[in-house]
Each structure stands twice: as structure tokens, then as C-alpha cells.
Amino acid sequence: MKHKLIYTSVVAASLLAMSCKEEKTSEPVVAESAKVETTYKGKPVTHEFDAKIDSLMAQMTLEEKVGMLHGSTMFATAAVERLGVPELTMADGPLGVREEISKDNWSAAGWDNDFATYYPAGGGVAATWNPELSYVFGNSVGEEAIARDKDVLLSPAINIIRTPLGGRTYEYFTEDPFLNKKMTVPFIVGLQENDVAACVKHYAANNQETNRDFVDVQIDERTLREIYLPAFKAAVEEAHAYSFMGAYNKFRGDYLCENDYMLNKVLRDEWGFEGIVISDWAAVHDTKKALENGTDIEMGTPKPFNEFYFADALIEAVKSGKVAEAQVDKSVRRIMQVMYTLKSIDDKGRATGSINTEAHFEDAYKIASESVVLLKNEAKMLPIKTEGLKSIAVIGNNATKKNALGGFGAGVKTKREVTPLEGLKNRLPEGIEINYAEGYLERYSKNENDQKQEVTLKGPITVDELDPAKLEEALTAAKNSDMAIIFAGSNRDYETEASDRRNLNLPFGQEELIKKVMEVNPNTIVVMIAGAPFDIKNVSESTKALVWSWFNGSEGGNALADVLLGNINPSGKLPWTMPVALKDSPAHATNSFPGDDVVKYEEGILVGYRWFDTKNVAPLYPFGYGLSYTDFSISGVKTNAEAYTENETISVEVAVNNTGVIDGKEVVQVYVSKPESKVVRAAQELKGFAKVDVKAGASQTVTVQIPVKELAFYNVETKSWEVEKGTYQIRVGNSSRNIVAEQTITVN
Ligand code: BGC
Questions:
Q1: Are 44 and 274 contacting, i.e. CB atoms less than 8 angstroms apart?
Q2: Total-model pTM
Q3: Which of 33, 77, 580, 689 could be a cystine partner for 701, CB 3.0 to 4.6 Å?
Q4: CB 248 within 8 A of CB 239
Q5: To which H or E segment does residue 315 belong?
Q6: Ligand 1: does its nearest atom lie under 6 Å from the Cβ of 176?
Q7: What does the DSSP 8-state code read for residue 108?
Q8: Which residue puts its alpha carbon closest to atom 5 of ligand 1?
Q9: Which pLDDT value is given to residue 479?
Q10: Using alpha carbons only, how large is the chain's radius of gyration in Å?
Q11: Distance, CA 409 to ligand 1 centroid (Å)?
Q12: b/e sequence 228-240, b meaning 16+ C-beta within 10 Å
């Protein structure tokens, strides 16, 4: 990974050490007491070549210009070769650079040189609570994208997790707008440093897969601004993302790719977006409306490319005077500005990248190793004590299941995906016998009656009876081993794009399997591999140790084994709330999911932990939660002042003490609440966090910086952000439900 990070504030020595192999453009300052606060800034679209673009456009025919506005293959627009304007090439996506797709249909192109690194999925990335790792990811995958000659990577995917059932929860980051933007911005900055454009998706309010092609999402304006848009806004204002993907669904009556309010008014006029809007695949429904309302490029699924709305129909519309040619020119100009920014027109000095390298696998490992969340660890069951250990039963289909590909939607063709079982084999000391048993079978049914709940949802129906022979094999393995690890959860066939799950049940009879294995060997731990919440209440009560891992990339199995064995001290924190039951989650408690033709977000701003904390609903595991093998105490919380004005920054200083005997990383989380507000407020909102590496027995001072402007609410009457005067409580802890210190400040 090369490194051109621009540090504008102080950076922790530990983070610095992590990235020391890279060259930096400016030297960060390290204060005596290590502070963790890094600002990532992208570079805007260049205007250096505007005159050249005008001259090129003057030479182009209408047909040539229109060719640049729609897919002429599955993942590229047409070139204008005679003028040296290349195709704009694209690839998915969030898990790494997708294998090459055929030019005119969805089947794989069958190349033998399109193997790529499989990176951890969004949930895992967010669970690191480490923006530096999001930068590492962006930069690393950017090198892979440019090595494959891609101009645009269809990533990051940053929709807010509104319901735990969401089919794409695993792909997205979080339920919280602040964590979302803090992970989004560095990813884009890192990616675009490789002369590859991010395509930030799916803009916007695409929070369910059910009816995603037409559902009309109704969100009140304040909620839209405070919850669903902040990361998209930061992607423009801070990261300078060069492209956005218009979502499939409607918003307040208009499709997102035809939505004047969202594309022209908010994205372009308000935020100053200068990049290009690319439609999701087949998300355009009207030539004139889509182009005039802000979409630049129509991409889609196989039908003759000239039949796209932005193809022959657009040429016709211009010729008949229905659409002004100036509209076409506007989009062509934007596309060429992005092309020049990416050095793709005149490719002198363009990054060259590399793909499928050890360095990139190492990047994937780093992210995975900080993403694993330790949910429960009674009697210090973990890390596994290998001394004297003779045998381990490894049980569950998920011990060997691969997730780089699967389900509907983009994956990665990779040469390396270390499974949990392989990870254990790689990492366990020699001489410890592994007794593997599949335990449960991944089986699906076509019979709707097999799954009684939530029939309006279309997610896969699982067969939940255990296979007697498989169960027997698992019990025998467990009985004959010193300890057992059950790998349960889901996979990418079960959690998938284009449908939402029907319920939160553990699939394939896992709950029964876990119960029975525990009966024969109480020395059993459970590892969940999944990208979204599940109903794990019973499992959580019955097991002494519970670990959460994700669809975690090429090195996922090694990272997980390192955590289980104590080579890595877990430091992941949940990026969303794990509810006790589905009905506790806001969209379900308000009975406003999945809607029908229309879905109204009745819970308003109370998404995720905002709902649980405000309504006093106890979660099973709260947002921000995750244990460590060591113990931390957070103390000495103080702010640099008692009163602030709107343009100042609140510095919250905290001492993090590692009171245990091994080194570890803790995430200091700062929530803010506003008592006596003139508007409805959530009980508290995350406004700052910092991950720190603290040596055993040592203490570190961390400063979390919160610009007072972060405390603003969106005032719908004045249509602007407003920082209310008065008192605020600064609440510091290591999860939304473990606040250890509070301090009151005033804003004047
Ligand atoms: C997905 C996008 C993806 C596109 C191209 C769509 O179905 O919603 O996320 O980038 O397909 O594969």
C-alpha cells in the first residue's frame, strides 16, 4: 500500500507505527499524550483541462456524446476512439474487485487473470472502529482496481442499517451516521489516491431489499438529514468522491435516478458535488426525467444497449427537441472532468497498481484481525489454552464455508480464502488433534409453509431439521475432544442482495445443534460468522464464550484463529445493536417495515441504539460493545473548557488504563445528549471515538475532538443545521450502554 495521507491533526503513535512503511506527504505531529484524531481529505475534481474538454466536445457528434452516457457493455460506456476518449470502465464492489463479467450478460468472462483479494465485508470493517483501517482497505483495493484497468470501483456501500433483516446488512457499515461517515471518508480517500473513482452507493434511502425496485421511501426531512445522508454528504465535502450511484427505489414519489431534489438540489447545489451520477443497474425509467434531474450515466442489465433510456431514445429526444443538447453536454463534460482527474484520458503518470499480492492479503488480515467481536467470555474461557490440550472438535458447516462468492450480487474470485478450519490448522500448535464434523447442512426449501414468519419477505427459506447422521458425527467429535468450537451463523447465500431475511432465527437447525453439543461437552464455545444480527439469546445464555466474526476476507480464518488462540487480542465493537427480539428494533416496533408500495420510516430519527436508549429497551448486546482479553478502565474524563461557542471544538481528554496483563486496544466512545431541547432528541448520539493501543499495565491519554457544529440538529423550518444553545452532556464509555463518566458543558 502506498500512502499519501494528509494528516491535519495529531495522530496516535500506535497508528503511526502501523503505517510506517509508507511515505507521507506531510509529517504528523505526535503530542506527548498520544491523541487519536486523523482527518482524511480527498482531492477535488480537476478543472485544469476544461478548455481541452470544450474543444473535444466541439468535435463530437451527438451519437458519440450519447455513447458516453450509457453502458455499451455490462460495465463500461463507449469510447470515442478517434478523439482519444477511452471507455469509462467499472467493477464491483465492496468485497474487492469483482471478476470480469462478460460484455453483454451477467456470466463470468472466464478470464484467468482476474483473481483478486477478498476484503472483509462492510460490517467487519465498521466493527474495527478504526478509520485508519478503512483507509488501508480503500487504498489496497484501489491498487487492485487500477491494476485491472478500472476507472470506477462501485464502492463503498454505505446505506444505514435500518432493520436487522436487511439482505445487504453485511455489505453496509452501521446503523449510526457518525460511525458511518468516519469509516466512509478514509475509504474513498484511500481508493481515489490510485486514480480510481469511488462510486458511493446506494444514494439514497435504499435500506431494504424488499420491493427495492419500486418502493417509495417516505422519510421526514430531519431524519433524512440527520440519519440517512451524513455519510453521503461527507463523501462529497470531505472525501470528494468522484461518482455516486443512484439507488433503485423511489424517494418521496420519484425514483432516485430521477429525483431532482436528491440529485440536483441536495447533492449538487447544496453539497457541491462535481462528480458523476451513475444509475444502479437498470434503475433508470425515463429518459428526460433521469437526465434532467441529475443522472449522468445509465447502466443496466442485458437488453440491447442501444435500447437503454440514455441511448437511441436520448438521441431521438434531442433531435425532436424534447431534451436540450446542452443537457447531454453537461453530463459529458462532467464525465470528462472525472476522466482527466483520474488521468484516464491522457494516462501519463497514472497509477499502475497491483493485484492479488501478499501485501494486499496482509491488509485484509489487518482489517479482519481488528473486526472480531468478543461478546461473552465467562471464566476467561478464551483465549484457548493450548497447554495440555490434546484435541478440539471443530463443528459446523461454517467452519469450512467460503463467502467470497455466494448469493445474489457481487463477490470476488479469489485464490485465497482461509476458512476458520484452515485458520485453526494453520495456527494451532502441532500435536493438537482437530476432529471436524459438519454438524448441520446448509439446506433450503422452496415451500413457503416451511417458514411461517414474515411471509411478505422473500429471503431464502431454510430447512431447519438436523440430519441425524451429521448430528451424531458432531456429538461423537465433541465427546471425544477436550473442547469444542461450533461455527454457526449464516453465509452469503442466506444473507443476500435482492431479498431481506424472513426472521432472525439461527438457520439450519443450529440452535438445536449447539444445545446438544453443549450437553455432551460443556467445554464448548460458539463462534458466529454472519454479517447481520441474529436471535442468539439462548445461545448467548448457554455458552460461556461467544465470538462474532464476519464475511471476513481472504485472511478471515487466520485472523479468527489468532483471536481464538490469543495471538490477537480482540478489539472489534458491534457497529449495530443486537436486539433480544426482532420486535424490539425500531422499524419493527413501529410496524413500518417493509411497507408495500410505500414505506414510511415511522421511527424517525430513532434508528438503531437511538431507539433502544431513548425507549429504554434493553438490547442483547448494545451498539459499540465488544470485550477484550484484558481489562480497561476509562477515567479522568475532562473537557478543555466548560463553555463553548459554535465555531469551537470540544476536546475530551480521557485516560485509558490497561489494568490487565496483556496489551490491547480499546475504543473510547463519546456520546452526547441534550437535555431540554426544543426538538425531539435521541437519549444520546455518538459524536466522537478513538481506538487506542494500550500496553499491559500502562495508561494512555486520548483526546477526542468534537467540533461544536457536530452537536447541531437539522432545523426543518430554517432548512439549516442549528446548534442549540444551552447545556449538553458529554458521556464517555466503551459502548452505548456502558457510560463510565459524564461531564456537562454549555454552548453559548
Ligand atoms: C447492485 C449494485 C451493483 C450493481 C452492479 C446492482 O444490483 O445494487 O450494488 O453495483 O448491481 O453489479
A1: yes
A2: 0.95
A3: 33
A4: no
A5: helix 312-319
A6: no
A7: B
A8: 281
A9: 98
A10: 25
A11: 7
A12: bbbbbbbbbbbbb
* Model pLDDT, residue 347: 75
Of the residues 92, 216, 254, 280, which is catalytic?
280
The DSSP secondary-structure symbol of 537 reads H
Q: How far is the C-alpha of 5 from the C-alpha of 38, rounded, in Å?
A: 9
The confidence score (pLDDT) of residue 22 equals: 36
Asked whether 407 lines ligand 1 (CB < 6 A), one says: no
Taking the C-alpha atoms of residue 461 and residue 121, their distance in angstroms, rounded to an integer, is: 23
Kindly list the distances between the CA atom of residue 439 and the CA atoms of 87, 374, 730, in Å, as whole numbers in the listed order: 50, 23, 48
- Could you tell which of 75, 95, 154 is best to mutate to test the pocket of ligand 1, judged by most ligand atoms within 8 Å of the CB? 154
Please give the helix or strand (H or E) that residue 713 lies within, else none: strand 713-715
281 CB under 6 A from ligand 1? yes
Using a 6 Å cutoff on CB, does residue 212 contact ligand 1?
Answer: no
pLDDT at residue number 36? 52
Q: Using 70 as the pLDDT threshold, list the residues of the chain that sit under it.
A: 1-37, 450-455
Based on the residue annotation, tell me whether 280 is a catalytic residue of this protein: yes
C-alpha cell at position 671:
456520546
Tally of CB atoms within 10 A around 439: 32
Beta pairing, strands 373-377 & 545-549: antiparallel
Predicted confidence (pLDDT) per residue in 566-587, tens digit: 999 999 999 999 999 999 999 9
Cis ω before 364 (30° cut-off from 0): no
Atom index in ligand 1 nearest the CA of residue 498 equals 7
Pocket-testing residue among 497, 499, 500, ligand 1, by greatest number of atoms within 8 A of Cβ:
497
